[in-house]
Amino acid sequence: MHRWLGEVFSHPDLLGVLGIMAKTTVVYVFVIVGLRLLGTRELGQMTTYDFVLVVVIANAVQNAMVGGNDTLVGGLVSAMTLLVLNGILSWMLDHFSSLEHGMVGEPVVLVSDGQPRWDRMKKEGVTREELLEGLHEHGVAGLEDVRMAVLEVDGSISVVPREARIHRARRRVRGLRTS
Amino acid sequence: MNESGLEFLTVIAVRTIIVLVVLTAGIRISGRRRIGELNLYDLVLVLVIANAVQNAMTKSSGRITVGLVAAGTLLVIGWLVAKAIGRWPMLEGRLMGTPTVVVQSGRLIHRNMRHEGVTENEVMAAARQQGLARLHDVKLAVLEPDGFISVVPAEHSGQG
């Protein structure tokens, strides 16, 4: 029984814990900065290849974080370090708007009172077809019926129509909830 | 310990349960429930965490029995939690969180927003998704437990 408990609640020594925290921090910062510099930031515009890339990156860094340490406490320390780092990142995004602008981006107005802003669309890589698709999704037929169309930071296009309100189920990532 | 014995598999099952419970508690405490507003960084976080705890569950064992026991344990717990919520509905508030009002009568409730980590930009994006351009047009906005922000338009917006 004693040996069984030892197998369940195995843990690294203090130096090992500190090592895992340090390595996890380095890996997290590296991956976030790397993704921001090289990759897409909008999940809504993510292609299958982007998704595969993210999954493979997560697997690639696994051993770098826990360093082959297969103790229970080692894994949990790494996970909690990640949650804390993410909390710090969220706090910084909330408090430094320039950082939020750089990392998450700002919503961009694409159509204002029926007037399309082609220059902004070109800059954001939104084509005329994608804009019209976004309007149609909201039940709006043409540009003249649009009070405002906005490219959101998650890559979706939201539309405020001139007249009646359109009910629409928003496309979204399904949750992890069972039941 | 014999790596193919039943005893070893019970070690895997218990470790898996502990990892799941601690992780769920950690995520709940850190206030990150916004699956509905998942961005790229959140996705990376989830995947990297999943990998970080992998060896803590499986003891680096690549044996198929170990993998099946760990995965099976997680599935059974998920099923048990769903059953328990069905039986005792008040558990849902505890486990999933309760809806939080973030806009009332066109005014942002900053205290609730800070607590849940919701930014003004996210609230405005949710309003625009409902065809509302200004905060003034929002009667009520609620952060739901699944992270989706639902918006009730003000009657004067002429769109209700």
Describe this structure in words.
The complex is a heterodimer of chains A (about 180) and B (about 160). Chain A is built from eight helices and four strands, in the order ααααααββααββ. Chain A is of the alpha+beta class. Chain A has a four-stranded antiparallel β-sheet with strand order 2-1-3-4. With about 160 residues, chain B is of the alpha+beta class. In chain B, strand 1 (about 100-105) and strand 2 (about 105-110) form a beta hairpin. In chain B, helix 1 packs across helix 4. Chains A and B meet through helix 1, helix 2, helix 3, helix 4 and helix 5 of A and helix 1, helix 2, helix 3, helix 4 and helix 7 of B.
- Give the termini separation of chain A: 36 Å
- Helix amount of chain A: 40-55%
Described by the principal axes of the CA atoms, the overall outline of chain A is: elongated
The termini of chain B sit apart by 67 Å
Structural class of chain B: alpha+beta
Number of helical segments of chain A? 8
Query: Largest interface: which pair?
Result: A-B, 75 and 66 residues
